[in-house]
Amino acid sequence: MHNGPLLATICAGLTLAFILGALAQRLRISPLVGYLLAGVAIGPFTPGFVADQDLANELAEVGVILLMFGVGLHFSLKDLLAVRRIALPGAVAQIGVATLMGMGLSYLLGWSWGAGFVFGLALSVASTVVLLRALQERRLVETERGRIAVGWLIVEDLAMVLALVLLPALAGAMGGGPAMPDAHGAATASQFGLAGILLLTLGKVAAFMAMMLLVGRRLIPAVLHWVVHTGSRELFRLSVLAVALGVAYGAALLFDVSFALGAFFAGMVLAESPLSHRAAEETLPLRDAFAVLFFVSVGMLFNPNVVVAAPLALLGTVIIILVGKSIAAYVIVRAFGRSHSVALTISASLAQIGEFSFILAGLGVALGVLPEEGRDLILAGAILSIFCNPFAFILIDRLVGRPAPAQAPAPVPAPPPAAREDEEATDLRPTSLTGHAVLVGYGRVGSLVGQGLRKAGQPVLVIEERREGVEAARADGLEALLGNAADPEVLAAANLAAAERLFVAIPESFHAGQVVEQARATNPGIEILARAHTEAEVEHLMQLGATLTVMGEREIARGMLAHARQAGG
């Protein structure tokens, strides 16, 4: 009873991932590398303990659901529509280019055109988890680059849903076996034909989206608001998880939509509710834990023998993923008039493959279209590309460079009238303020601080990651920048070197610590005031350079005691 495969997989996976992830962090490498190596260590191709691969994959799927739900909570239909002109054609073009490159390699390997098509298609789609983790680590999800990448991801997901439906129907023509009756609705092939299957699939996706926008948009926030009024935090946390997992599973069961896409739309309809921020906080711990299990499950797939058996084919596969896709994405983004930094970020984000690639490869082998060697190359290419992806971002940071903060940066010209609003996130216009206060975060605490400083006549610049927060600050008459305050480029635009005071009003202690550390390095003499929730957070922020750290609970207690003394005195 104590040695069940589920418990063993969770314990071994998370424990080893922690050890190797912490070691990677110590070596200044992305912890993702440690998570992947943990999977290799407990996989079937290395000696010692072997975890259950099937269970690991199912646990990883929970991470995908929670991750996409969290992204949806910070995304809106307006954001999705704002990038449709680049995300839709860009993703389709990139899928086409990558598929052709894969078919070219398969031709050199002597495979059939059908095998090459499946192989190239599997190499064309990026991993949901890897892409989003990379964006979240750099606080880019709510920037223009992040919105384009997420929109691109949604288009790729929809394309793969269509591919998984159509592949069984086309297997015979591609040199494979007959359609499988249980493979994503392929049993309808003989009844409706190829065109009918395509229309049926598009109809199901449209029906799901319509249901979420018409019914879910009202029902989900209403249910969570009712739960809030029960006063039970435990019940609220459970309701958020039930919404994320329930909608994702129901979307897959009833509409043949991927778990990731279903969870994303569930989060997106909830994003319009005031409870979205709290819902994101409640799902964060589980989301991170299960996302780690995803990387462990990917590591378990890696068979080192493929390096010896087919080194040149593996090299070609990795080059397509890391170089070919990156160049294609860069050219496409630049062709749409986006900046050099945006194009590089998108190309790095897409320079890897993941979960949909595994599913497509498995289905291709089961239908007799793709040889087993192709599946092995896809799996090896996936783990090597995920391993290299953090280094791709480091390389891009060096290529783009970071501007040194200037004492008195000159204002840049306003963008031309043809510029789009969604480009504002990357066009950081340096402020001309000096002797000002920089306020990081414009939520419940930050807005009160900002309004108080404005009434006192203090010039203020707000740095906020949420677009709605920037709009609120500007509506209150404050200058604001949209971006990550821990980014030296953002701090340079805020002219922190010439600022008198920094207020860090965000609740997340890890992010706050990064901001404090960067700010102290940029301006050693600046006064830094930060907020914290625990004594440990106070000590952490003070060690990183905060001048004063205010713990909310302590100030509330002092206020209560002061009132009690006045009432009794």
Give a quick set of tags describing it:
six-stranded parallel beta sheet; 569 residues; globular; Rossmann fold; mainly alpha; Na+/H+ antiporter like fold
Number of individual domains? 2
At CATH level 2, the architecture of the largest domain is: Up-down Bundle
- What low-confidence regions span 5 or more consecutive residues with pLDDT below 50? 179-190, 402-427
Helix content: 55-70%
Q: Compute the CA-based radius of gyration.
A: 25 Å
Total count of strands: 6
Structural class: mainly alpha
Strand content: under 5%
Task: Give helix and strand order, one letter per element, not per position.
Answer: HHHHHHHHHHHHHHHHHEHEHEHEHEHEH
Largest sheet: 6 strands, parallel
What is the CATH topology descriptor of the largest domain? Na+/H+ antiporter like fold
Number of helices: 23
Provide mean pLDDT, rounded.
Answer: 82
- With strands numbered from the N-terminus, the spatial order across the biggest sheet is 3-2-1-4-5-6
What is the C-level CATH assignment of the largest domain? Answer: Mainly Alpha
N/C terminus separation = 64 Å
Shape annotation: globular
Condensed summary:
With 569 residues, the protein is mostly helical. The protein contains 23 helices and six strands. Helix content is 67%, strand content 5%.
Structure description:
The structure is a single chain. This protein is mainly alpha-helical and 569 residues long. The protein is globular. Residues 179-190 and 402-427 have low confidence and may be disordered. The chain has helices at 5-26, 31-41, 53-73, 77-82, 84-108, 113-124, 128-137, 144-170, 189-228, 233-255, 259-270, 276-300, 305-309, 311-335, 340-349, 355-366, 372-400, 444-455, 467-475, 488-493, 509-522, 535-544, 552-568, and strands at residues 437-440, 460-464, 479-482, 501-504, 527-532, 548-551. Helix 1 packs across helix 12 (276-300) and helix 8 crosses helix 15. The protein folds into two domains: 5-400, Up-down Bundle (Na+/H+ antiporter like fold), CATH 1.20.1530; 429-568, Rossmann fold (3-Layer(aba) Sandwich), CATH 3.40.50.
